[in-house]
Design goal:
Order of helices and strands: EHEEEHHEEEEE
Shape: globular
Number of helices: 3
Largest sheet: 4 strands, antiparallel
Low-confidence stretches: 1-34
Number of domains: 1
Length: about 210
């Protein structure tokens, strides 16, 4: 069971999502559902990181990542908003419950996010591709019914998900425009080339949308 932090928190400024008992994540014990949570701010802008920096980030937030921090247990508190989105009260992030239905290359991922904003998915037009920190916050030690290391409240069935951050210290990283990605089936962080060059081994990925509650 996930540990729930009970420290005093800044309340979210945006109107709270609908909080009904049957919509709460099972990890949150009934006795503490209405407690205030320690707000954890995750980086929301792109960054190039060396492997050691990534390891330090994972350990500092106690994220579960296979082969790096297998005892990780990040304390999410998800609320189902009944509109295809989930709000994590701990991070102040809103996520699409589902992800893209097909694989994309990077330019396609940006186009997918543009489409969500253009149609104002769930009433918002500030959806974006998550950073590595933000996407790591979704990793669970156990697997959901879709076989992914992710909360059972998410309906996404696809495992290989892109994030915004860039690897450093990897051969061809810059020339191949490599980005980090997370394989939610195995619980590991990997890298993907997004530029079409014969030596880049370009791979497609799924996209998961996030926005920051204001």
């Amino acid at each position: 069971m996930k540990a729930v932090l009970k420290q005093k928190a800044d309340s979210l400024q945006e109107p709270k999502a609908k909080e009904t008992g049957d919509k709460r994540l099972a990890y949150v014990d009934t006795a503490v559902k209405n407690e205030e949570f320690h707000r954890i701010k995750l980086r929301d802008t792109q960054k190039a990181q060396y492997p050691k920096e990534i390891k330090n980030m994972i350990e500092s937030h106690n994220f579960y990542v296979k082969k790096i921090n297998e005892k990780g247990d990040f304390p999410n508190d998800f609320v189902d908003n009944s509109d295809g989105t989930l709000t994590d009260r701990v991070t102040g992030l809103m996520w699409g419950k589902d992800g893209s239905s097909k694989l994309y290359q990077y330019y396609g991922a940006e186009k997918y996010i543009f489409g969500l904003n253009n149609e104002k998915f769930a009433g918002y037009n500030d959806w974006r591709i998550p950073t590595l920190e933000e996407l790591c916050s979704l990793l669970e030690r156990g697997k959901n019914e879709n076989g992914l290391h992710m909360s059972p409240l998410f309906t996404h069935k696809s495992s290989f998900v892109l994030n915004l951050d860039l690897p450093v210290g990897i051969h061809y990283a810059e020339s191949c425009d490599m980005h980090h990605a997370i394989d939610f089936e195995t619980g590991v962080i990997t890298e993907v080339a997004t530029k079409h060059e014969s030596w880049c081994h370009t791979r497609k990925f799924y996209v998961k949308a996030v926005r920051t509650i204001k």
